[in-house]
Amino acid sequence: MKIRIGEKAISAALLTALAGVGAGFLNGLLGAGGGIILTLAFGALLPKDVGETEATRDRFAAAVSVMFPVSILTVFFYAKSGNVLPESDLPWLLLPAAAGGAAGAFFMDRIRASWLRTAFAVLLVVSGINMLL
Question: Are 67 and 61 in contact (CB under 8 A)?
């Protein structure tokens, strides 16, 4: 029995693998940024037959769901090499970040997709400028 794999499936698998490697590498190297690569890749991979708003939200949600375990792994390797914040500082960052993440997830369904894309673009530009300076 021969299994035929279409060109579209092969290119999607290749893009997925490259995006995964790139996202993991960038996250490990810089401690951030892997989600940006995944968001762009998911934009090319997710079905085009869904509405614009749903597709935008799906991209962001998919990137977050993939980056969570990747970030945990990155933290493990950073901690192993001694590059983490003191434990006394973690609650001051983790608790507000968790609350902000929950609030963001709650409001994501209530905010226009065009605003989400604009906020994402502004965040990218500001982060890039910050990294250059």
Answer: no
Question: Which H helix or E strand runs over 94?
Answer: helix 90-108
CB under 8 Å to 44, separation ≥6 — which residues? 15
Summarize pLDDT for 45-66 with one digit per residue, the tens.
766 655 666 677 777 777 777 7
Q: Which of 68, 66, 67, 42 is nearest to 56 (CA)?
A: 42
3-state helix, strand, coil in the chain (%, to 5): 80, 0, 20
Structural contact between residues 44 and 30, judged by C-beta atoms closer than 8 angstroms: no
Asked whether the beta carbons of 74 and 66 are under 8 A apart, the reply is: no
Q: What is the pLDDT of residues 88-130, one digit of tens each?
A: 887 888 889 889 988 988 888 788 878 888 888 898 888 888 8
